[in-house]
Design goal:
Elements: H1 2-14, E1 20-24, E2 64-68, H2 85-91, E3 96-102, H3 104-117, E4 121-130, H4 138-148, E5 152-154, H5 156-165
Parallel strand pairs: 1-2, 3-4, 4-5
This protein binds zinc ion.
Amino acid sequence: MVPGLNKVIKAFERRSLPILFTRDWHPLDHISFRSRGGIWPPHCVQGTPGAEFHPGLRIPAGATIISKGTSRDAEAYSGFRGTNLEELLKSLGVEEIFLGGLTTDYCVRETTLDARTAGFSVTVIEDCTRAVDARPGDGGRALADMRRAGAKLTTLSEVVKRLAGTQQ
Ligand code: ZN
């Protein structure tokens, strides 16, 4: 997944398109953790190695990093929840979002649905996401939900082809 995302990121860099990363950035006692009655083990605690991006992921200088889930009492699967992502994308003139990463059935799904609600076109790079699949089939159901909300599902090779083929 990471090498695929890096290919998309490089293609965006070549065309000087905006690149944004969202990350969980939780307080130590975040509401989503089991210790607080949530469903997740502690993860992505602010300032710890667990909150860092995958070491192989290309983070270009000039990319924007959006931290979410930063308040102890609010969950945020979506990159739009409790952040300035919508305003930021609109100020950049973004109309279409290409999306990949973790996880298909939680953060990718919720971010996609919120992006559709906010009026963006969304293209999910299906082979650049992975599902938790806590219940078998969750990932597939999430993809169906996103498609129903008007998101396009595509593959890495299609995206790379499209970005290489349309020069500006
Ligand atoms: Zn989280």
